[in-house]
Amino acid sequence: MTKVAKTKKTQAQAGAAPKKTGAARKAAAKKDAAPVAAAPVLLTPDTLPKPVMAGRDFLSNLDMTATELRAVMDTAHSMKRGEWRAVKPLAGLSIALVFEKASLRTRTTFDVGMYQLGGHAITLSNTEIGLGTRERVSDVARNLERWVDAVMGRVYLQQTLQELAQHAAVPVINGLSDMLHPAQLLADYQTIEEEFGTDLRGRCVVYIGDGNNLANSHIHMGILTGTDVTVVTPVGYEPNAGVLMDAVRAGVNITLTNDLAAVQGADVLYTDVWISMGQEAEADIRRRAFQGYQVTPEMLDSIAPDGIFLHCLPAHYGEETVPEATEHPKSRVFDQAENRLHAQKALMYHLMGDLKPRW
């Protein structure tokens, strides 16, 4: 008692701060008890991994092998741990970011990612370029290859990216097309690996909604990783037939169904917008077709107890999902968005990491 009283008197004489509330004491104790995270082991120019896709294009997830995917994912995890802070492997290099479609995550993460790796990004809207209208796509490619070391395109048609890649001598990256969204899937699978580990064989990934570019790229990732991919769509909105043939040729079974019960027990439940950019004229028809396919907290209760919910964003709340789902304890939607930065940095390194500045 005497010791406590003396301590209180000393604090009062010193003009100490008021006594902490119970909640504040608990918070302080929790902070003091929290383990201190070990500092990351920083890489050096001599310990960087070898770029596994040097100089190649990335228009589809199938443009890499399973072994190359593993290298890219390991790099993404390493970057997120902060192990690359002391190196600038793309110093002196530039990438052109070409946008036919609006963007938040793609533009920001490729731009910031290139900066963090020591390089420079230049953003070009279609108002400035006019792909296929103001200039032929082939001419745009032949110009850009003289100035920059890679091109990322977020476009309407997969054919546009194929034409850019055909005529540009530098790597071309698919930042999104009507057919595929492969860079997004790298971030998605980084998020899935954070939850379930790197061996995803047999994990149940259920995609629900429109059989669009995300559904197509999920099928490609199922081929590479061994996940069991199920695509749940209304009749008439199934994934691309050519992409399904990719699975057939690879000997991989992809489940297609219209039965919403397929989401039960899923390790990963994934959805995307019902109405993509360019489909606004179909909005009313699509909303009617997709009734019942909305991801809600009640649907999340039916997936595996340790299952997670993913959405590539932006979300059209009230359509394919609701705020209560993206903010649900099983949601990893914003971790997934964060991982766009790390996964795309890893991709750019493995495509460009052996290049030297040309100036």
From TrEMBL:
Gene3D superfamilies: Aspartate/ornithine carbamoyltransferase. L-ornithine binds at residues 213, 272, 276-277. HAMAP family: OTCase. GO terms for biological process: citrulline biosynthetic process; L-arginine biosynthetic process via ornithine. InterPro entries: Asp/Orn_carbamoyltranf_P-bd, Asp/Orn_carbamoylTrfase, Asp/Orn_carbamoylTrfase_sf, Asp_carbamoyltransf_Asp/Orn-bd, Orn/put_carbamltrans, OTCase_ArgI. SUPFAM superfamilies: Aspartate/ornithine carbamoyltransferase. Keywords: Amino-acid biosynthesis, Arginine biosynthesis, Cytoplasm, Transferase. It catalyses: carbamoyl phosphate + L-ornithine = L-citrulline + phosphate + H(+). This is Ornithine carbamoyltransferase. It comes from Deinococcus indicus.
